[in-house]
Specification:
The complex is a heterodimer of chains A (312) and B (207).
Chain A lengths: L5 E4 L15 E6 L8 H9 L26 E8 L5 E8 L8 H5 L6 E4 L4 E3 L9 H5 L6 E2 L6 E2 L5 H4 L6 H5 L5 E5 H17 L6 E3 L9 E5 L19 H7 L2 H22 L7 H16 L15
Parallel strand pairs in A: 2-11
Antiparallel strand pairs in A: 1-5, 2-9, 3-4, 5-6, 7-8, 10-11
Chain B lengths: L3 E3 L3 H25 L13 H26 L9 H6 L1 H5 L14 H23 L11 H31 L3 H6 L2 E3 H7 L1 H11 L1
Antiparallel strand pairs in B: 1-2
Helix pairs in contact in B: 1-2, 2-5, 5-6, 8-9
The chains are: A alpha+beta (312), B mainly alpha (207).
Chain lengths: 312, 207
């Protein structure tokens, strides 16, 4: 049985099989509860059977230094000095946000290489990936990575294989502080509201939910103590959206330019049909020129009119 | 016996057709990634990944060889003041009323403009193509630059393809032009009719 819950499919202009309705899911990451233990990174690596190379220390706690084709989630550490002069250690679990309007899917040129499930999960199908990297160009969060080994794009799947059989993602399962929770998007929003009330009561007056509207909302959301300044958290975009450049590149301009090319070919064809070829035929021309000369000689005679077939 | 004069030498013709072949290869592989309706064109190149791998190399080869054409032909393509009159009479041009048009040198203003549009498109394609060549170069550029380059690449390719459609049709329309580029020769009458100033230049030289 084929998958019947695909609500969007890359490089596909007709509907994918989408009759199965399911509730939207979401992963909620409560940054205020995170202790930076990286158990989620390990769980991700274990469940997905990926072993990234042991890298170098880059002078921060971030390890590895960046997301890679083998590391789909990463703790990013920020040392922030607040207005009172206190140090705040802001730790954010980075990874695919599973946007409702995914820029990667919009940019992808290969049919079916990126799909969006009815539950909100945006998944890469490496079988169809051609390795062009357009998903990286389209992503407002800088998430997908092309593997050096096979030139395919990889990123967090939100453990679509686990979720499809009713399990929570591996990172959620392993989180020792309960900073990562998983459920329907509605439930996660309710849970976030409770957390925000609690944070506000403890002095974080700008605490809030990060579910950015610019990408239609996300299926990975953050509870932030400083929701007014998301960029504090290692450059989490304040107002992410698919770049207008990408929308223009992949939007209405494509069918319009295809139509313009088709119209140019048709214009040529009908010009040929209506006006016809332009010949410099030797015989005809020579004959014609001789005739014109003769007529010119007689041009004093008003009864003789010149006749040029080209001027009809 | 037809009287013929040489319009393009063997080097010029070879250069032209090499660019033409590469244009079709780079163009078809590019169109395959341009719109989902044309993704099937990847089959001509051995599938999606091969299309992605080959396209930039074909593009670079096209660009380099096109520069050969630029070096050969640019000095014939400088727009002059008197070209304005020809453009004003575009209706006469399109309706085969050439006798009403001003005299034309080696290239008419339409051909000259085509030359410069092709050159501009090729330059934009080459530069933006490097920026979006993920395998070797994209990591040198910021994401905003890559996005701009992706857009510029598509726009320039669109302009190039549109120009080449016009170019190919002009060859079909003006009988004798394809022969000029295939075997190099045109009839005296062809030269006199379509490029009278060039014809005078050539025949004067021979005398």
């Amino acid at each position: 049985m084929a998958t019947q819950d695909i609500i969007a499919r890359s490089a596909t202009t007709t509907s994918a099989s989408s009759i199965r309705q399911v509730e939207e899911v979401a992963k909620l990451i409560d940054v205020s509860k995170c202790i930076g233990c990286k158990a989620c990174q390990v769980a991700c690596s274990e469940w997905n059977d990926l072993r990234d190379d042991v890298g170098q220390n880059h002078g921060t706690y971030d390890n590895p230094a960046d997301l890679t084709a083998d590391s789909w989630t990463l703790m990013r550490f920020t040392e922030h000095e607040n207005a009172v002069g206190d140090l705040e250690w802001l730790i954010r679990k980075d990874g695919c946000m599973h946007c409702a309007e995914p820029g990667c899917l919009k940019a992808c040129p290969s049919p079916g290489a990126i799909v969006q499930h009815a539950n909100g999960i945006v998944d890469f199908n490496q079988d169809h990936c051609i390795g062009c990297g357009y998903c990286i160009t389209g992503c407002p969060f800088n998430i997908p990575r092309i593997s050096q080994k096979d030139s395919k794009a990889y990123k967090c799947t939100l453990c679509s294989d686990r979720v499809s059989v009713g399990l929570e993602p591996a990172c959620v399962k392993t989180c020792p502080t309960g900073a990562i929770t998983f459920g329907t998007k509605e439930d996660m929003k309710h849970h976030a509201e409770e957390r925000i009330v609690d944070l506000k009561s403890r002095g974080y007056e700008n605490a809030g939910l990060y579910d950015p509207a610019g990408v239609g909302g996300t299926h990975v959301m953050y509870v932030l103590h400083h929701a007014d300044k998301p960029a504090l958290y290692n450059d989490l975009p304040n107002d992410p959206a698919v770049s207008p450049m990408v929308s223009l590149w992949k939007g209405i301009t494509k069918p319009l330019s295809l139509m313009a090319m088709g119209a140019a070919v048709l214009a040529g064809f009908f010009h040929y049909v209506r006006v016809g070829p332009n010949r410099a035929d030797e015989e005809d021309e020579a004959h014609h020129e001789a005739a014109v000369e003769q007529v010119k000689k007689k041009s004093n005679d008003a009864s003789v009119k010149t006749f040029d077939p080209n001027q009809r | 016996m037809k009287k013929e004069i040489v319009r393009y030498g063997a080097g010029e013709r070879t250069n032209h057709w090499a660019v033409a072949i590469l244009f079709f290869m780079a163009g078809l592989s590019g169109l395959a990634l341009f719109h989902p309706a044309l993704f099937w064109l990847t089959n001509l190149f051995g599938g999606g990944p091969w299309t992605r791998i080959l396209h930039p190399f074909m593009g670079v080869a096209m660009f380099v060889l096109f520069m050969g054409l630029v070096i050969r032909f640019w000095h014939h393509n400088i727009l002059e003041k008197r070209d304005v009159q020809w453009v004003k009479q575009i209706g006469d041009v399109l309706n085969n009323r050439e006798d009403k048009l001003p005299e034309i040198g080696k290239y008419n203003p339409g051909q000259k403009m085509l030359f410069w549009v092709l050159l501009a498109s090729m330059l934009v394609l080459m530069l933006s193509g490097i920026v979006i060549w993920r395998e070797y170069f994209s990591h040198f550029f910021p994401i905003s630059g890559i996005r701009l380059a992706a857009l510029a690449h598509a726009v320039a390719a669109f302009l190039l393809i549109l120009s080449i459609i016009v170019h190919i049709y002009a060859g079909i329309w003006i009988k004798g032009s394809i022969g000029a580029m295939l075997h190099g020769k045109v009839s005296l009458l062809w030269a006199k009719k379509h490029h009278s100033l060039w014809y005078k230049d050539i025949t004067r030289d021979k005398k």
